[in-house]
UniProtKB/TrEMBL annotation:
PANTHER family: DEFECTIVE PROBOSCIS EXTENSION RESPONSE 13, ISOFORM B (PTHR23279:SF37), DEFECTIVE PROBOSCIS EXTENSION RESPONSE DPR -RELATED (PTHR23279)
Protein name: Ig-like domain-containing protein
Organism per entry: Phaedon cochleariae
One term under GO cellular component: neuron projection membrane
InterPro entries xref list: Ig-like_dom, Ig-like_dom_sf, Ig-like_fold, Ig_sub, Ig_sub2, Ig_V-set, Zig-8
PROSITE patterns: IG_LIKE (PS50835)
Residues spanning the membrane: none
One Gene Ontology biological process: synapse organization
Pfam families hit by this protein: Ig_3, V-set
Domain Ig-like, chain residue ranges per copy: 43-133, 135-243
Gene3D superfamilies per the UniProt record, alphabetical: Immunoglobulins
Length: 278
């Protein structure tokens, strides 16, 4: 009896045996049951960090310039300072001679943050985070650097009578992070803990404020008071505790004597005029 190839395959399948059938023809080409699939394409690189993001840091702090990248694949991340096109880092290697710059990246993470230690005003500007894809793709981050400073509310000079209450409030302005301390000085003495001298200081580091109070001011409390945060420029005010003097007269007298604070060249000009006049 003569069997066709199709009938033989049907019989074998009906026997329920696990048999590997050769479905190729004599030339090795796939028959009508074969299939071919196109290679899978990698998803494109995507920046999770928004382009033209603005980062603000204060002088002396550590600036963190973010760059989160999805689907980086085999791409390499570089950081470039745009104002002079200086290559800062490639991967985790720092190419700048300034070791304050470093790329921060944890294994298997998508975060390639640029860290700048002890940031300075000259570090402000535009930074490029670039991925070596085909073609290369980038985003730009603007770094602003501010100078934090303390401010004591009210005039730079204050006048009180003995027995009056004194309250000085200091705020830390333009600070991107809380100070670790805020110290008060009376002349050259730190007075945060001088409760026995009638001085009370309350500080809220989270709110970046500190308040000095004296409930019963005496002449010994006269002098210069300075607010000195750990991470900002200090501020000062002068307190006069009057003992019968007239504050208006003292202020007028101070302004009236200000002409004595002349520069040497001004004094020379004054004496020259007097000599010619005489």
């Amino acid at each position: 009896m003569k069997y066709s190839r199709e009938s033989s395959e049907a019989v074998l399948c009906g026997m329920g045996e696990d048999i590997d059938l050769d479905l190729s023809d004599d030339n090795g080409d796939l028959n009508e049951l074969g299939a071919s699939f196109p290679p899978l394409e990698s998803p494109p690189v995507h920046f999770a960090t928004e382009n033209n993001t603005i980062v603000t840091s204060q002088t002396g702090s550590t600036a963190l310039v973010p760059c989160v990248i999805n689907n980086i694949g085999d791409g390499m991340v570089s950081w470039i300072r745009r104002k002079d096109y200086h290559l800062l880092t490639v991967g985790l290697t720092t190419y700048s001679s300034d070791d304050r710059f470093q790329a921060i990246h944890l294994q298997h993470s998508e975060d390639w943050t640029l860290q700048i230690k002890f940031v300075q005003q000259r570090d402000a500007g535009l930074y490029e985070c670039q991925v070596s894809s085909h073609p290369p793709t980038s985003i730009f981050i603007q770094l602003n650097v501010v100078e934090a400073r303390a401010e004591i509310q009210g005039p730079s000079e204050k006048y009180l009578k003995p027995g009056s209450g004194l309250r000085l409030q200091c705020n830390v302005l333009q600070s991107t992070e809380a100070p670790s301390y805020i110290f008060w000085y009376h002349n050259n003495r730190m007075i945060n803990y001088d409760v026995d001298r009638g001085i009370n200081v309350t500080t809220d580091l989270t709110e970046k404020t500190s308040t000095l109070t004296i409930t019963n001011a005496a002449t010994r409390h006269s002098g210069n008071y300075s607010c000195v945060p750990s991470n900002a420029q200090p501020a000062s005010t002068y307190v006069h505790i009057l003992n019968g003097e007239n504050p208006a007269a003292m202020q007028h007298g101070g302004r009236g004597l200000s002409w004595l604070q002349c520069s040497p060249s001004s004094w020379l000009l004054i004496f020259s005029v007097l000599i010619i006049w005489c």
